Amino acid sequence: MIDTRAHANGPATLPRGHRWVVVDVETSGLRPNAHRVLSVAALVLREDGSVEREFSTLVNADCDPGPVHIHNLTRERLAGAPRFTDIAGELADILDGGTLVAHNASFDYGFLDAEFRRSGRSIPAEQRLCTLALSRRLELDVPNFKLATLAQHWQVQQLQAHDAYDDARVLSEVFVRSATLAENLQLPLPVVNCRGRKSVYPDSVQRVPCQWKNPGRLTEAGLVQGMKVVISGATTTPRPTLAHRMTEAGLDVLNSASRQTSVVVCNDPGVQTAKVRKAMAEGIPVITEQQLEALLERVAPGEPKAATVIDIVPQQETPPTTATPAPAPKNLALQGTKPKLWSGRRVLLLGGTHLEAVLMRSRIAQLGARPSLNFTAAVTDALLLEGADADKRLSRVHDRQLPVLTPDDVNAAIEMGVVPPHMRTESRLTAPVLSQGEVIDLPAKTTRWSVNVAWKAEATGDEFDVDIVAFLLDGNERVDTDEDFVFYNNPAYDDGVVELTVDGSSEQSVRLDLASIPAECERIAIAAAIDGDRTFGDLGAISISVDSESGTAATAVLDAGTTERTMVLAEIYRRSGKWRLRAVGQGYDDDLAALAVRYGVEVEGSD
Q1: How many CA atoms lie within 13 A of 474 on its CB side?
Q2: Are strands 542-547 and 370-372 parallel, antiparallel or unpaired?
Q3: Fewer CB within 10 Å: C terminus or N terminus of the chain?
Q4: What is the pTM of this model?
């Protein structure tokens, strides 16, 4: 394994072609459309990593500041601060033409984008880089990727956590060291376009979380708080205004009809929209806008929601926070299980045909090692197949003096339990590497997970156009509503209970809050689709890492694809009161639309 700090502490030279602007925001909550920026800091970096220009201010959003115990920003502290509209011009000037760098960049970008829109402007940053994704791409030897943990790893002093200026200062040093290491390893940085794809569907109603349980279908007794309401077709009152009125009354307004829908509002049911057809098929009441107005005059109180309790065996320990350097990751999923022969190693394959590489990766996983897709900081060994001499990474393997393996070494380990004498015997216990079809229980207490999907990082201009998606499925392996399909055009379910983030050119994540998954959802399928005519045989292996803030529960490398254009990568499902994880790797030759239809999504449904 590479000593990352030894190769990143020399003179820094940030990659050219970018104006790097490190940003951090403190906010009143987690949802950009509902919560506000309370503090923002931005540091413009020179090519050598030093700060050329800086900006930092509190922001008076005139709102509930939210988690004061985290950011210490009270109403009193914010009272004399400028409004965002007052600072928008100067901040826009700093960001203009820059590549925004942040830790969990989609979060910071989302909040700044929302604030600029409120002030009547557009955020000028068109590219961003997530240091969380960069750290994962480098495969740093850390128990988790929190900013505090990375600061420990890079020996950067953190003075005041959750202070926007200090977090930006710390992050700038973490970024400079990480970018220097990436350059040393010849790994491209995970820079992504902020603008993303444009929606091809009509504007939808913004989902607002409802605090009341769904009491069921509309009856003669009238509306009850928590009822799920869907609007279909033209309305006299603008749809967003009508939806806001229902939300204020305590109703749960959605964009798609499902078996849980209480009532559909449609002024002309004879039009037979997809929502009306669904209502008729399921026996859901359909009322007019005029009837709705009368019912809204008296809405009965509902029953508050209670937190979901999941009965899982408690997790034993949490990683320490004071050691320097940061401690090695713990095996969260299989406490007390004897590690496999090569557990803790990361093996880079060089050369070979596609089928030879598939076979060797499978055997490496059987031994407990993790096949590495890139030459990263975590690579411990290199497996040379025929043609490896032509791989430009071979010289770096020799420079690092990494042990070199042959197929005979792998086969002997499988057949006779042999550790090659030239392989370093030390290894660290890590999360299990799952083979295709293998299942584990997700560990206790932790309900927030991130399914991080990555593939080989290519040079700029040669990236694959891969979409990671998620389906929330019922007991019949079908979505209940089109909103249960999370993808680039619908990146969040139920205000972030399941959320898609694009973190880099070859990294995407599906983040889940399992405690908030509705009871009718029994399974979450995570899948990948390649746009255009390219296939998984062209893409190669896909890496999956299932992580929480505490560490990694399991990893998998799936690479049996050939002609497939879509592939179900993993499933997280309920079984006997527990959440379980399965590595799947089931591929299909057709496209994302066909995959969505198989799961019950109405791809061509009308409104």
Answers
A1: 12
A2: unpaired
A3: C
A4: 0.74
